[in-house]
Amino acid sequence: xxxxxxxxxxxLERVYGYEQFRDGQKLIIxxxxxxxxxxxxxxxxxxxxxxxxxxxxxxxxxxxxxxxxISLMKDQVDALTSLGVEAAYINSSQxxxxxxxxxxxxxxxxxxxxxxxxxxxESDWFLERAVSLRIAFLAVDEAHCVSQWxxxxxxxxxxxxxxxxKLAAHEFGERPLIAxxxxxxxxxxxxxxxxxxxxxxxxxxxxxxxxxxxxxxVLRGEDRSAFTLQYVKDRAHQSGIxxxxxxxxxxxxxxxxxxxxxxAGRYHAGLSDEERExxxxxxxYDDVRVIVATNAFGMGIDKSNVxxxxxxxxxxxxxxxxxxxxxxxxxxxxxxxxxxxxxQDIVTQKFFIEQNETTPERKAHExxxxxxxxxxxxxxECLQTYMLRYFGEHDDTPCMMCGNCxxxxxxxxxxxxxxxxxSCIYRMNQRFGVSMIASVLKGSKNxxxxxxxxxxxSTHGELRHMTEKAISDLIYVLIADGFLGLSEGxxxxxxxxxxxxxxxxxxxKVQQKVAQSLKPKTLxxx
Length: 526
Ligand code: ADP
Prior knowledge:
By secondary structure, this protein is an alpha/beta fold.
């Protein structure tokens, strides 16, 4: 008899004790019980496990789960076992006898879910055994690892498709249903997942990136250290995480907090295992309210009452930001995610990219990701809308909670400033970066400006009443707003996009809630 959603709900209640599926889960499970290949994209904490576990429990045969980390496998299997579900994993920590024992149990139908690392699929020995396991369903966790454009490429994920092909071609084998899951896939990575896992006419379900209880804010031009201190003091009784990009920065911030009498923890890869574990425990059990950390902190932490996540620096891409900021408000209570942006962050992130020994193509891609992160810091639109679009989810309803939605400053017509900027870029042959353009508009006579003869341009000094920083900021806003484009690479150049040309021709106006560093007063003086 065909499996129905009612059966699925019963399993949810009986096994997990939950009353209903979340929206995304329902859609994914509907597709899977109709045996359609599916890609599920949901943020961390969105409830991906249930999406494959419930169908796995409903159908005949074994579900093979591909999982990249031994610790993740173990957590999942422990959780399932405690719910009374027959689950097991095989990984490199076990000897052959143990692996054989588990495979025999799976063969006898005593196991419903078997977790394996992708490397396992590369072995012919495993393939032979797999044929006799009658794998009905293959669930691929952390599926972005298959894509070079994801943030965590794993070569062994490329073994999944050949494995399935061989399984299907084997005289006693058949192709299982496949579902792929990830928390962080841009539309580009999603396409890679579909192509490289050879999914057949898959359904795509992207949901849950909207976090109704999170208020996102980007602050540019703050004195970060003073801001952070005050921010934490104002929230002395709340749990919070402060992320910084380097160990040194973590140490500095931590020291400052402690000096001001705040009981703060710190966490980075330079500390001993014991120290890190102790810090983590102290934070989880509320012995310290605030923890200052690099991105090494947070993996696998399920602390529900984190009231704020403050980013002292801009992270390297939106995937990282969403993951880290998303650790706030797991309990659904109102929480804040604040990003303190400073142009130096761009330099730091580009430095990190240059440090990596990788292909020029890969570098260009990483630069692009940094730029999209910078755009987030400058966009005037709803920050959640920007975020959702980044992950391919379309929802244009403004969140009404973020810094941009709540920004009550009036829209100012900045068409004239924009025209000056655009024509300056045009006269500079669209071959220079943001800071050079800002220097020319400011009227600087620095060596480079003179060398190129830009002091003789009619646009030289056209925005001299503004600071160079304010001009740069405005250019970044115009980039984020789609008037200007940036080339890829370490030293990106700015070019005009079609909307900018319309502005130059006087066919289009530019409205802006004026950026903090661009006080309306300054503009009024134009
Ligand atoms: P992910 O793998 O997407 O990070 P998990 O599968 O670990 O997320 O689920 C996150 C949390 O949400 C878990 O504590 C899980 O038990 C809970 N959860 C998942 N689905 C539901 C549901 N339908 N109702 C209530 N809680 C749920």
